[in-house]
Amino acid sequence: EKNLEVIYFTEPADEYMIGHLREYDGKKFSTITHENIEFGDEDEDLKKRRAEAYKDKFGPLVKFMNKFYGRAITKVKISNRLGNSPAIVSSSEYGHSANMERIMRAQAFAHGQDAGMMPSMKTLEINPRHPFFEALLEKIPDEDDEDAKPSLEVRDALWTLLDTALLNGGYHINEGKAFSSRMMRFIKQNLGTESFDLLPEIDPKVVEDVPPDVEMGDGINMEDFAADDLDEFSD
């Protein structure tokens, strides 16, 4: 969409290299998975005024989401680079990328260390033009009511939004069990089932034991035996 040249770094050594090689042949490298990426293809004055307008409109939602997610992410911010995606998780400018985090996790597991203790600076970028956030803005509790809690539907939507943004950013989902529970509620709602309770065991049909039919054939035919053979048995 932006008509930019993109270089894919797929080797583990590339992560270490790009951390030290900031530019080449007069061209500066920018890591697309980092926040604060500027493409330089927009009118700066219009961009600034538009950013202020989005901040005024979605400020309460951003504040609520920052409080809601707590330590799950570093911060929530309004993005201007997401196209059709509702959200994505990016790393800070000097933080670890998703690929580097995978490498570090693999190294931690190899040495028997706890990979969950690794610090990670993650930013949730939200798309202010996406209808999801227009709906969330209307459903979150009033910021003046500190005791109000969002509904289960809103909580599920917010956590699922973060999970999909993590996957879009190349990260893994931390709370797999909670994610599975939300997906089960989503399927339950879409299928219109009333409960997760298991149904009674099915009653199988009663089948009587019937002896199998044995084919006796045509029996023994004396004509099949030669006369000489019969004389041997008589002796």
Q: What features would you describe in this structure?
A:
There is one protein chain. With 235 residues, this protein is mainly α. The protein is 41% helix and 8% strand. The chain is built from 7 helices and 5 strands. It has helices at 12-18, 44-69, 98-110, 131-139, 152-168, 176-191, 227-234, and strands spanning 23-24, 27-28, 75-78, 87-91, 122-126. Strands 3-5-4 form a 3-stranded mixed beta sheet. A two-stranded antiparallel ribbon has the order 1-2. Strand 1 (23-24) and strand 2 (27-28) form a beta hairpin.
Question: Could you list some keywords that capture this structure?
Answer:
mainly alpha; two-stranded antiparallel sheet; three-stranded mixed beta sheet; 235 residues; 5 strands
Summarize this, please?
The chain is mainly alpha-helical. The chain has helices at residues 12-18, 44-69, 98-110, 131-139, 152-168, 176-191, 227-234; strands at residues 23-24, 27-28, 75-78, 87-91, 122-126.
Q: In terms of structural class, how would the helical and strand content be classed?
A: mainly alpha
Overall geometric form: extended
The profile of the biggest β sheet is: 3 strands, mixed
How many strand segments? 5
Question: How far apart are the termini?
Answer: 104 Å
Topology as a string of helices (H) and strands (E): HEEHEEHEHHHH
Question: Which band does the percent of strand residues land in?
Answer: 5-15%
Strands of the widest sheet, in order across it, are: 3-5-4
Q: State the helix count.
A: 7
- Poorly predicted runs: none
Radius of gyration: 34 Å
Helix content: 40-55%
